[in-house]
From TrEMBL:
SUPFAM superfamilies: NAD(P)-binding Rossmann-fold domains (SSF51735), S-adenosyl-L-methionine-dependent methyltransferases (SSF53335). The keyword Membrane applies. Residues 281-564 form the Polysaccharide biosynthesis protein CapD-like domain. This is Polysaccharide biosynthesis protein. Belongs to the polysaccharide synthase family. Keywords: Membrane, Transmembrane, Transmembrane helix. The chain crosses the membrane at residues 7-30, 42-62, 74-94, 106-126.
């Protein structure tokens, strides 16, 4: 039906209801009314008709989509009818010698509410009961009968033309809600009963609608849901809803990051604000996974200026546009800078021009096998690049320099880890004489970063498998990108100079278990997507460590942040490597790196002999 025909139909329907309701009310209240009263009723009928259409347009009763009518539409109807009756009463008062037929008007008001309201809401009842094809819909169980669950249920019921989910039941741990109904959907039981409920109600799809769940509790709940072998989705986390990233009604697939089982760390907002707010901060590698997230986290503390430094044009463009769109109403100056940390002159120029208070150095080559094949590039970027940025910080008196390091720098067996350990040595050496506070922050793998196993596994699952794991016993430490970035920022406020901060990574995770979880979360079984073992790649270790045996300092200085003991650095070997690394071939360069990294251990062995 077209717009004009629809309005004409509603106006005609209301006119019939309004014109006849007053006569019905008068006959009910005054069965033997006189001719004089009949005249008053006729005048009242005309007044009702005129005022109803006036208030109907004021409250837009002819412009609402009644198939989706709810409490708001009902309130609009009540307001329009009430003002119509009041205005008609005033007409009666003036026309009928200051007399109002109150009982007749009250009955008329009731008839209008029932007939006009009923004529509107019948469209929604008809749509909900008869228009929707409930066949071929996925029977959906909603976990959580709170406000988020209610919103999801209402959305699924209201938009059945646009989705293939049919909500049939809730589960909730609140016993007071059991056997109750929400939007005509029953609360079927406890979350522990999910497998039985899924079987009994022939559920095809599960939606977790508890955005405030901590990772540990979510992990347990997802394990229960996964045991049913049904597809599992969830509403976004509460921090994503509060930050405006996504709305509560937007469903998302459960990711490995969601079930990592780690509780979020509480940041010391005051100390971070003191360093960042109204100051200039610089992030190298700002287009990378960690660097870009550090930028996002820093923006929450309203720096005066943020320098996005990176070598990749598109990655810097992407984070620049993201921050500009999100913080367009703030006075924060966002400056994208294309620069290579290997270009010493360019780096000095940037630091001198902008004079940042803090530098977060996240630029690095991190891919282990690639760096095994390209050790000279690893030295140039991870060592020479770090020295260039650190020297610039020292030369221009920057307050704090934070090096983003890795657990692979501990007892390294590969080029990438060795170059990152040498980078740590460089900042530790500078910390001895510089007024700048030089520190390194060391952590393990981050889930979802470019080059990590998660994107690779997801791609392999999309292609139907197999998912390749190097070895069944291969383990790694994992944390999410946002958590790692927050802790890097927090560690910078704890710096006195020369420390290597180590982030608490929790318990190490077997890569094969990670692959199995991801297969289940993607809606498959291990029979559908098989796991194959490819063998350990060049330079890889079976297990990673966060502190060497001579660095261990067991007490945390902040929640999830430890500080390693400082070890002696052979400075002459550092400068010799930097000056002559181009003269070595691949194997000679690897040997030179390892001699520097293990110099103290070699010395101890020599003394022992």
């Amino acid at each position: 039906m077209g717009y004009k025909q629809r309005i004409l139909l509603l106006v005609l329907l209301d006119s019939i209801i309004v014109s006849t309701a007053i006569f019905i009310a008068s006959w009910v209240v005054y069965p033997n009314y006189s001719l004089q009263k009949a005249e008053v009723v006729a005048v009242s009928s005309i007044a009702l008709l005129l005022f109803h259409h006036l208030f109907a347009f004021i409250y837009k009763l002819y412009h609402k989509v009644w198939a989706y009518a709810s409490v708001g539409e009902l309130i609009a109807i009540v307001k329009a009818i009430t003002f119509t009756i009041v205005a008609t009463g005033i007409v009666q008062f003036l026309f009928n010698d200051f007399t109002i037929y109150k009982r007749a008007l009250i009955v008329t008001w009731l008839l209008h509410i029932m007939l006009i309201g009923g004529s509107r809401f019948v469209w929604r009842v008809y749509r909900d009961r008869f228009m929707h094809d409930k066949k071929n819909k996925q029977r959906t169980l909603i976990v959580g009968a709170g406000s988020a669950g209610a919103m999801i249920a209402r959305q699924l019921k209201n938009e059945q033309h646009h989705n293939d989910l049919l909500p049939v039941a809730f589960v909730d741990d609140d016993m007071a809600k059991h056997k109750m109904q929400l939007y005509d959907i029953p609360v079927a039981g406890h979350t522990k009963e999910i497998p039985d409920i899924v079987s009994e109600l022939e559920i095809d799809h599960i939606v977790i609608a508890i955005p405030s769940l901590t990772n540990g509790a979510l992990s347990e709940l997802v394990t229960i849901c996964n045991s049913t072998n049904k597809r599992v989705q969830m509403v976004p986390k509460i921090e994503d809803i509060v930050s405006g990233k996504i709305s509560v009604s937007s469903l998302k697939n459960v990711d490995v990051e969601d079930v990592l089982g780690r509780e979020p760390v509480e940041l010391d907002i005051n100390s971070i604000s003191e360093y960042v707010t109204d100051n200039t901060v610089m992030v190298t590698g700002a287009g990378g996974s960690i660097g870009s997230e550090i930028c996002r986290q820093l923006m929450r503390f309203t720096p005066r200026k943020i320098l996005l430094v990176g070598h990749g044009e598109f990655s810097i463009y992407s984070i620049d546009m993201e921050l500009r769109n999100k913080y367009k109403d703030t006075a924060i100056e966002i400056i994208p800078i294309i620069a290579d940390v290997q270009d010493r002159e360019r780096i000095f120029e940037i630091v001198q021009e902008h004079n940042p208070r803090i530098i977060y150095h996240a630029a690095a080559h991190k891919h282990v096998p690639l760096m095994e094949y390209n050790p000279h590039e690893a030295v140039k970027n991870n060592i020479i690049g770090t020295k260039n940025v650190a020297d610039a910080a020292d030369a221009f008196g920057i307050h704090t320099f934070v090096l983003v390091s890795t657990d692979k720098s501990v007892n390294p067996t590969n080029v990438m880890g060795a170059t990152k350990r040498v980078a740590e040595m460089i900042v530790q050496t500078l910390a001895k004489t510089s007024k700048t506070k030089f520190v390194a922050v060391r952590f393990g793998n981050v889930l979802g970063s470019r080059g990590s196993v998660i994107p690779l596994f997801k791609k392999q699952i999309e292609q139907g498998g197999p998912v390749t794991v190097t070895h069944p016993e291969m383990t790694r430490y994992f944390m999410t990108i946002p958590e790692a970035s927050r802790l890097v920022i927090q560690a910078g406020t704890l710096a006195h100079g020369g420390e290597i901060f180590v982030l608490d990574m929790g318990e190490p995770v077997k890569i094969v278990d990670l692959a199995k979880n991801l297969i289940k979360l993607s809606g498959y079984t291990e029979n559908e997507i098989i796991i194959s073992y490819s063998g350990i790649r060049p330079g890889e270790k079976m297990y990673e460590e966060l502190l060497g045996e001579n660095e261990v300092h067991p007490e945390a200085i902040y929640e999830k942040i430890y500080v390693g003991k400082t070890v002696n650095v052979e400075e002459n070997q550092l400068w010799d490597l930097i000056s002559h690394f181009t003269e070595h071939d691949k194997e000679q360069l690897k040997d030179h790196l390892m001699r520097i990294v293990y110099a103290e251990r070699i010395k101890r062995v020599g003394v022992a002999k």
